[in-house]
Amino acid sequence: MNMKVTQLAIGRFHHFHLARQLERLGLLEKIYTGFPKFKLRDEQGIPKDKVKTFPWIHTPYMKRGLIGIDYWKWLSEEWEWLDMQVIDKYVAGKINHPTILIALSGNGLHAGKKAKDHNGYFICDRGSSHIRFQDQILREEFSRWGHTFRGIDSRVIEKEEIEYEQSDLITVPSQFVKKTFLDQGIPEEKLAKIPYGARLERFYKVAEPSTKKFKVLWVGSVGIRKGFMYALQAFQNLKHPNKEFVVIGTVEPEMRQLLAGQNLDKVSFLGLVPNAQLPRIYSTAHVFVIPSLEEGLAMVQGEALACGCPVIASVNSGAEDLFEDGKEGFILPIRNPAMITNRLEQFADDPELRQKMSVAAIERVKSIGGWDSYGNGFQETLLSLIQGY
């Protein structure tokens, strides 16, 4: 394949994993990001001259919470829109020859058009559900908990849907996400499902859970979208003499209000922890819970499985593309704390079941092959696109 890939992702997300894979396969031309270079020092495996940063709008936007600007919702919305537009147009100005542009959805309308104008291709990479499904389910969920979701900026929805139409291909990470696109009328032939991998060199089993305590683990944003209240309710209803719920991640503002007055006995909020500590935390947990309302394919699931920690996940987390229900964990419908409690009780009451699933989890993730399988899948997709089959 002669044509190389230009990547555009305003943040990091999974795109630097993809860039490493494309470099391994000899396909990477450049990756553009809104992150500053000093924040990318831990991104190994990509030549420095292929990483192009445009941090002038995105970096201060990400720091807006430190000065309280995030409470001015209208300003955050305008800033986010400007952020996405400027980097898109900036990269469009850099494209002057045939290339395959892989752009994170919402970031690539102008750059994608420019790539196609130069006889290249435009791939819109969507890491979450279809933007209209995402907007609808978040409106519903916030309302269920007595909060108002401002909704996704209508300009962002419009831009993304034009990208869906304009792109040669839309890549998605899970069957759940693919279904939301099909339900919105996107033709199946325009969709390519390529599940994410896990960093096996970083995440692996290093310890055993305690036999004296039953530890439930949460890693990720503590918010309404992730379904944290369902996990908390399930834990509260779990009858166990020595249980613990370890919560790692930033607590979102709406969740702070919902947690006021809740029974948080035996719940430990640790905030953010260094990545180097996560393998031990995953390894010593009996079960990992993630009942998200919508995701692409939550990568923390792969991290937990790689450390031998079985997972209880919602179907909307993309779990079906990572493990099998009843083998390495359990996959449940959304908004069902009673079912989560039931599965927690199974793990607590049957250590042999948990151990069996722990072994199966490690074998499953190893069989997937880490991020190499993701890179190989993308290479096959690129070849199919260029060769027209």
TrEMBL record:
Has the keyword Transferase been applied to this entry? yes
> SUPFAM superfamilies recorded for this chain?
UDP-Glycosyltransferase/glycogen phosphorylase
Q: Does the keyword Methyltransferase apply?
A: no
- Which keywords has UniProt assigned to this entry? Transferase
Where would I find the Glycosyl transferase family domain in this sequence?
209-363
Q: Name one GO molecular function term.
A: glycosyltransferase activity
Q: Which InterPro entries match?
A: Glyco_trans_1 (IPR001296), Glycosyltransferase_grp1 (IPR050194)
> Under which name does UniProt file this protein?
Glycosyltransferase family 1 protein
